[in-house]
Design a protein that fits this description.
By secondary structure, the chain is α/β, with parallel strands linked by helices. It contains eight helices and six strands. Helix content is about 40%, strand content about 15%. Helix 2 packs across helix 3.
């Protein structure tokens, strides 16, 4: 996968930057992406809504009227959910947990799929670096980013906070993340992704599947197939007997 390559001052180079297919050229798994985004948004959710149940509402110690002989329906307490001013039944509580979890391998594959989807849409661009000099100014950063600053941009750098982060914190369109802070939602939410050349070392370290892992997976598959074949042969022998 080949993408545009920019200099430190924001000028486009004649040469292009080559991305590894192991991260940016994977077959897109949309179901896995939706699962990853759903879990991320669920984990951001706070259980602020809180209602009072009949145990939390004050009063209700005395029985309103006797059980039988009045002609009215029996009532145990005036704090019942059926009564005005009573507690709420099955309402939201601030102890509710909305978090969802998915495995590490699933999140890794979802991030690879998100990167590949953005690369297919030609939304990824590589910068050699972004140098702001001694004076950290927002206008300088916007000049370097050119037209990308008008859209929602995600700048990926090796670590979290830097001079770029300080220059861009007043701009709503620019989101700056370290490689270790990335998730599927932030990748998909941006219209353009600017990756600094230094951050590729960590990107490939986190999301490229090594040859050893591949060989181990293949071996594991072979062993499971062999076991299955052995079981089938045993069953066939029993049947023939």
């Amino acid at each position: 996968m080949v993408v545009p390559y920019f200099e430190k001052n924001g000028k486009l180079k004649t040469e292009k930057f080559d991305l590894k297919d192991e991260v940016f050229g994977v077959e897109v798994n949309r179901h896995l992406i939706s699962m990853s985004v759903d879990s991320y948004l669920a984990n951001q959710r706070q259980s602020n809504a809180n209602v009072k149940t009949r145990s939390d509402v004050s009063g209700g110690g005395r029985k309103p009227w006797k059980q039988k002989g009045t002609g009215r329906a029996r009532a145990s307490s005036n704090r019942s959910p059926l009564w005005r001013g009573g507690g709420v039944s099955f309402g939201p509580k601030n102890t509710d947990n909305y978090s969802k979890t998915i495995s590490k391998k699933m999140t890794q594959n979802a991030i690879r799929s998100a990167f590949s989807l953005k690369a297919k849409d030609e939304s990824i661009v590589v910068y050699e670096d972004i140098e702001l000099g001694e004076k950290i100014k927002t206008q300088k950063l916007l000049k370097i980013l050119n037209e990308f600053s008008k859209e929602k941009v995600l700048i990926i750098q090796p670590e979290g906070e830097s001079n770029i982060f300080l220059a861009a914190r007043n701009v709503k369109n620019i989101i700056i993340k370290g490689v270790n802070e990335l998730n599927t939602y932030t990748i998909l939410n941006a219209k353009k992704i600017i990756i600094l050349e230094k951050s590729f070392e960590k990107i490939y370290e986190y999301w490229v599947v090594s040859k050893k892992e591949k060989t181990l997976k293949i071996k594991a598959k072979k062993t499971t197939v062999k076991k299955a074949v052995k079981k089938v042969t045993k069953l066939e022998k029993k049947v023939t007997k």
